[in-house]
Task: structure prediction
Amino acid sequence: MGALVLSQGGTFEPPGVDSFFLPPIFGEVTKPIVLVVLSAVIVGAYFLIATRNLKLVPGKAQFAAEYIYDFSRNTIARDQIGAQHFRPFIGLIFGLFTFILVNNLFGIIPLIQYPTMAKIGFPVALFLMVYVVIHTVGFRRHGFLGYFKHVMFPPGVPKPVYILLAPIEFLQKFLFQPVALAIRVFAAMFAGHLILLVFTLGGQYLLLEGSALLKPVSIVSFAFAILLTFAEALIQVLQAYIFAVLTANFIGAALAQDH
Amino acid sequence: MENKMVLAAEGHNPILPAPAEIIVGFVAFAALLFVLYRYAVPRFEKVYQERSERIEGGIARAEEAQAEAQRTLEQYKAQLAEARAEAARIRDDARAEGQQILDEMRSQAQEESDRIVSQGQAQLAAQRSQVIAELREDLGRQAVDLASKVVGESLEDEARRRGTVDRFLDELDAASAPSTSTNS
Result:
């Protein structure tokens, strides 16, 4: 779409914020909205089908599905929350990891090429759910005042320090940490997609509009775009992992007996 | 910028979330969580459970079997020891009994042989005395007959005759007594 503009113009229009705001497909429905629904359907359908007939000795397909589940369950949820309390949160962590993973990977899947988490609305939606879960769990475990005490007055600190520490801890737990959770994945996806756009559109511009001498340089630009796509793939998996791990970590912290 | 894009004119802020996206994102994720919690997680957990039960159950069963084998082994050992002791006891008893029987039989045989020997001796003595008596009578008669023939007359006087024969026989007895004692 940007390419169309460029070929008409002749001067290079660098990709920016507007590259993420595509015109709606119909009505209010935009591409990221379609993609986010698609991702939920993909993940849900995959695990519905994969778990339909589980065997004690897994086949290849079952092994793959189980590997993802096992990773979310044991490596993320159990290690962060603790073997005693992690069971109710397996589904949440598992869902977060797979859902964000698929949405992020949309960024490099040909033809789709749009990381939905680059639209802040979706990380915010996840953030809201996680926020509610973390603090509900905390209030349930420690009681209303007990949870505030648990958050704001970590033990082992000289008393006067609490004047400074208590508000900081409060803001940290109730605002910064969860908000950062949402912004982290958004920013990573946003920036990553932008970089890919810069190299792809830049290469295209050089190829189409550049002088004969500049045209070969577009190869370098495309090469970088491809290279960065691999880096992007790594970051996308990593961000999904980080979101899930931090969520599990916050739940674990809210559940912890002592700070 | 000669870009005529309508969207750009609105001045998008990437930090401001669109309400529609939040709602759709939330609903989509909630629906996914529902599916995962309702189907995927329980199914996976069931397999995990079965697997760990299979392993733990196997171990428990193996331990049980081992304990059972140990118990049976001890039982067999005890039974074997008992049987051995029993056999030894029976053997000793039999030996003692055999010895006893042997002794009894030996003494019985001894008695029997003694009895037979003494009986034989008594019979022999009786026959001997009978033979002697018969011989004495016969010898006496023949000696008288012979003497009658030699003298040519009958020795009618029975009292004298009996006295003579008896005296003769007594003399004969006295003469042959040493020889008969050595013979017997």
Q: What stands out?
A: The helical segments of chain A are 2-9, 31-50, 60-81, 90-105, 121-142, 144-152, 162-209, 217-255. Chain A touches chain B through 46 residues (CB under 8 Å). The longest helix of chain A spans residues 162-209. Confidence is low (pLDDT under 50) at residues 1-9 of chain A.
